[in-house]
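Quick check before the chapter quiz. The format below is the same one you will see on the exam, so make sure you can read both the input and the output lines.
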Amino acid sequence: MMSKIFASKLYLINKFLLLVGLIFFWGVENQALSQQASCTNPSLLTITSREFIEDFALSADGQWLALADSRNIQLWSVPQKHLFKSLEEDSGIAALAFSPNRNDLLIGRDDGKIVIQNMDTKKRTVMLTDPKQPISAIAVSPDGLLLASTSIRERSLKLWDLKTQKLIRTLDTRLEFPSDLLFSPDGKTLWVSIAQSTVDASPADTVYKRGVPRLFLKAWDIKNLKQTEPITKQSLHGDQFFDLAISPDGRILAATTVKCLGRNCASEVLRVKLWNLTTGKTVNDLIIPDVPFINEHYISLAPDNKILAIGHTKGIQLWDITTGKRTRALSCSSAIGKVIFHPSQKFLAVVVRGRDNLIVLLDLKAIPKPPP
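Here is the expected output.
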């Protein structure tokens, strides 16, 4: 009898422990899902992609959003939250950009072609380049007349006439690993971040000892098609630059780089340098201690020229570029890719990595303020 009572009690204890375990794991899973949801809700629009998102673009007026995976493009009407058109390419897609009047979507492809897709007439124009030189990045001038393109394999930076679809000039063919490029809002300057070979590295530079290629930030005067130096060399020396962003008024340029911490660069964290392009001098130097540099990271400057958004593998951060203080931060269970401010500055378009590849127009109010 006692053995039956003991067995019964043991059974009840086991059931209780099992129930506690299920509640615990449900809580952990639910917390993860809640954390994931916090990076996607509340939002104006959420778009799911079947594959890894290679790039996305938001039109200047915020009305259209285009996303690309390896060979497919989705065109969405943001106000209507409606899929306008799907395009299938016969080559890999590397980069997207809208024309300023949003009539055209430009597509940079792995086969070296640049496709101009008209949004109204649905006409497609193919600009033939070297098929052996895949396009790595593209940028359209603010007046919609020029297109800049880079090719990592060719190490080139080229300038195109969008009206005639002809090459104006190859600005450079010595750019090893061009990283990012953009036009200034007045269209007078073209910026590009470029990785140079470690051959020129100084033995004293621990960054080079670790085998990381050096990156520079360069600019071209579009009128004269010559390289220019709007930023003082002192503020560029020794730094590597990757992702770029420029304020809508053209006064502030931001670029991501690396900050070494500890002896012999024991660890590397993300650093964002900001320059006043009127004076050419540094206006702020933001060190992001909780974002390792090895992680994926992207930046965007807000329409009011005051806020910098950072997307990285741990979440999203907003920084006041004047005070150099973090104003909002959101931790995410999935990595955040490219980020772009919506023109209204009420939303931030972000890529959410993970099991489902998403693009979300996240409500900025959903990003919490840090505790006082």
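If your answer matched, good. The radius of gyration is 24 Å.
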